[in-house]
Amino acid sequence: MTDRISVREAGHGTPLVLLHAFPLSSRMWREQLDELPGADGSEARVLAVDLRGFGGTELGDDEPSLDLLADDVALLLDRAGIERAVVGGLSMGGYVAMALARRHPDRLSGLLLADTKATADTEQARANRERVAAAVLARDSVRLLVDEQVPSPLLGATSVRERPRLEERLRAMVEEASPRAVAWAQRAMASRPGSLDVLAGVQVPALVLVGEEDAITPPSDAEAMAAVLPDVVLTVLPAVGHLSAMESPDAFNWAVRGLLARVEASG
Ligand code: MLT
Questions:
Q1: pLDDT tier at 267 (50, 70, 90 boundaries)?
Q2: 49 beta partners
Q3: Does residue 233 sit in helix, strand or coil?
Q4: Residue nearest ligand 1's atom 7 by CA
Q5: 12 CA to middle of ligand 1, Å?
Q6: Of 86, 160, 172, 194, which is the most buried if we count CB atoms within 10 A?
Q7: Cα separation of 212 and 251, whole Å?
Q8: Shortest CA distance to 166 belongs to which of 179, 176, 156?
Q9: Which residues of 92-108 are buried (b: 16+ CB within 10 A; e: fewer)?
Q10: Is the ipTM of this complex over 0.85?
């Protein structure tokens, strides 16, 4: 366990834990922290976590594993005095949310899976992750990642064309990532198992959300997850790519409010 998990927090309502994409940080959730608590501050208590090695959380010395990140979230809930929370992750954050659903199902009151997938990596994807991990460590720089991922495929085609300031914001965030954390996370993601069986057993309301232009985890991945979740709403956001929460925060937040309402209605 890391001793200190850095969290940005806002609001006082239903606990909502947000887990960021790779290789970003809790800073990607700016509009969710600003808007989801609601005008009177009572709709949601948003906790945006920095996963190990990113933002303000130290990497530590453990071997790469998404299960550790899920255990970190459970520990964070313990420390915050939160028994159950709506747990939401985007892409890598979604993988961690699924690991949490496997290891700590009793901590979930709802599940948000955005621009992510429940299948394990192919051999080719694993090899590519190892290539990136080795290169950033050897060069002690994340330049390669910036060149290969920003703006595409992280942003959708519409955002690349029409949202230049978003590209700047994203580039700055990726440049902030440390080579050690990038390599660690790549190796952790490479060894994750498939989670469709876990999703089939999720007993709480779920939202699966995806950008129509997501080139990393396309709508077909979202459909596969929605097909097995027992209580699910699937939302496809038009003109949006992989980073839906940043590319179209209003539509993203509207869909999340719907999930929060379902969670409150369920008990
Ligand atoms: C992410 O956005 O977190 C990554 O694209 C996830 C991945 O590399 O599988």
A1: confident
A2: 7, 19
A3: strand
A4: 92
A5: 30
A6: 86
A7: 13
A8: 156
A9: bbbbbbbbbbbebeebb
A10: yes
State how far Cα 202 lies from the chain centre. 18
Q: Strand 14-19's sheet: what is its strand order?
A: 7-10, 44-49, 14-19, 85-90, 108-114, 206-211, 232-237
CA distance 42 to 181: 35
Residue of 216, 240, 242, 243 with the most ligand 1 atoms within 8 Å of its CB, for mutation: 216
Degrees, nearest 5: CA angle 254-245-44: 50
Percent of the chain residues topping a pLDDT of 70: 97
Domains of the chain: 7-120+194-266 (3.40.50.1820)
Question: Residue 49 to residues 8, 87, 173, 179, 229: CA-CA distances in angstroms?
Answer: 7, 11, 15, 20, 25
Q: What's the chain's length in residues?
A: 267
